[in-house]
Design brief:
Low-confidence stretches: none
Shape: globular
Mean pLDDT: 90
CATH topology of the largest domain: Rossmann fold
Number of strands: 21
Structural class: alpha/beta
Distance between the termini: 55 Å
Strand order of the largest sheet: 4-3-5-6-7
Helix content: 25-40%
Radius of gyration: 22 Å
Largest sheet: 5 strands, parallel
Number of domains: 2
Strand content: 15-25%
CATH class of the largest domain: Alpha Beta
CATH architecture of the largest domain: 3-Layer(aba) Sandwich
Length: about 425
């Protein structure tokens, strides 16, 4: 299929040139248009003319979520307000949400990036795309839809929830692509199976993001829906929204659109670059964003760059799936534990389903206690629960150096949601 939105040929030298020109423009634009950035650059002793090479990126100060919240309601505004056509908001406390503004060009660029994602997933204009994510101030639904319209596929703006309606749409409209959170995809897949609808639907591809999904969950969704591919789509409201990258059908990592932003992978403590292939914090610098340019934004998301070129031949670099957040880490008896590590351990264990919860408690003895609740597989033998729990406990203790209790619970006894699933419940105060 001819690529319309993806450059066919782009050398590393060409890409570096695009990035340098974009970085220089962004710094000039932000310095001239934003009081916030001007003060921040002046305090760091750096001016736009100091940015002569890509290495000079490291001279620029970081931007954080606190910066966005403290400068509410229009943080990082870098254009006259008359040029702003839309805002989107990310999560946060009431009155302190991270609000980002967009110009008409920003919206166009975002739609082009999203269309590139659909192109990377090898959609066609004959595809019917059911968008099962939230609309409103969030970037999710409107981004998926704008990209669909730019690409030329048929959009079904279903939004989240309302499972009966979603299933009816899958059958009646013969949806070929589902866009959702991983939790919503699981919920839909289980209901398709429970109601015997698999032979009546035509889902071939699922695109999901917003939360980490284990390999076990992916395989379950594929099997229950009869889908051929599941694609990961990353995205932050702070950096346009979802659509800033996608893995291709080879599923060897997420191609990110490095002609629109620079991605650094840094040690979250030292803020120095990690070794190639090592996990670190994802730090973003946009190259074309007008309304609210983002310069060295600390996302707190953890991932790694994947070396080499993808078999698909794409000129764009790749990062791995997001493994978690640096601020999601919890400490149990002096040991650092990431929820993603527990997730990975459970995904390897046979005999259990995909849903789980992590509970942290501090009892009267002053010690911390870890409990993992995980569902027994469908039609699993409850008589094996004790042995299964013991095996998981041993693996957790061996790989995380933390002792914990595992409770095997009934299949589908843990809550389902169409949004991000809450996995960690910390009641230690």
């Amino acid at each position: 299929m001819q690529k319309i939105f993806t450059p066919a040929l782009l050398t590393q030298e060409q890409l570096a040139g695009i990035q340098l020109a974009g970085l220089q423009w962004t710094v000039r634009h932000a310095y001239a248009g934003s009081d916030f950035y001007r003060k921040k650059f002046d305090a760091a002793g750096v001016r736009p003319e100091d940015i002569r090479t890509l290495d000079d990126l490291r001279r620029l100060p970081f931007t954080t979520s606190r910066d966005l919240q403290e400068n509410y309601p229009y943080p990082l505004l870098s254009v006259p307000f008359e040029d702003v056509v839309r805002l989107h908001a990310s999560s946060g406390t009431t009155g302190k949400r991270k609000v980002l503004v967009y110009t008409a060009k920003d919206i166009d660029d975002w739609a082009d990036m999203f269309a590139r994602c659909y192109e990377t997933a090898e959609l066609t204009r004959s595809d019917r795309v059911q968008i099962c994510v939230g609309y409103g101030v969030w970037t999710a639904g409107v981004g998926f839809q704008a990209g669909c319209e730019r690409f030329g596929a048929f959009a079904v703006p279903a939004g989240p929830g309302n499972i009966d309606m979603q299933l009816q749409f899958l059958v009646d409209f013969q949806t070929t692509v589902i866009c959702s959170t991983a939790s919503m995809a699981l919920l839909l897949a289980e209901e398709v199976h429970a109601r015997g609808l698999k032979d009546r639907i035509s889902v071939k591809k699922v695109i999901f993001g917003a939360e980490r999904a284990s390999d076990a969950l992916r395989q379950k969704v594929k099997a229950l829906l009869g889908a051929e591919h599941i694609f990961d789509i990353p995205g932050l409201t702070e950096v346009y929204g979802p659509g800033t990258g996608l893995d291709c059908p080879h599923h060897t990592g997420i191609h990110y659109w490095s002609d629109y932003y620079i991605l650094e992978i840094l040690d979250p403590e030292t803020l120095e670059p990690v070794a190639p292939g090592e996990v670190g914090e994802m730090v973003y610098t946009t190259l074309r964003k007008e309304g609210a340019p983002m310069i060295r934004y600390r996302s707190r998301d953890l991932s790694r760059l994947i070396p080499g070129r993808c078999p698909c031949g794409s000129p764009f670099p790749r990062h791995d799936r997001i493994v978690g957040r640096s601020d999601d880490m919890f400490i149990v008896r002096g040991v650092n534990v990431y929820p993603s590590h527990i997730d990975e351990i459970l995904s390897r264990q046979k005999g259990i389903a995909t849903e789980y919860q992590i509970h942290l408690d501090r009892l009267e003895d002053g010690k911390d206690y870890l409990t993992v609740k995980v569902e027994r597989e469908k039609d699993g033998d409850a008589g094996r629960d004790a042995a299964l729990a013991s095996a998981i406990e041993k693996t957790i203790r061996k790989e995380t150096l933390v002792s914990g209790k595992v409770d095997i619970v009934d299949y589908q006894s843990l809550p389902r949601t169409e949004r991000k699933a809450k996995r960690v419940f910390d009641r230690r105060g």
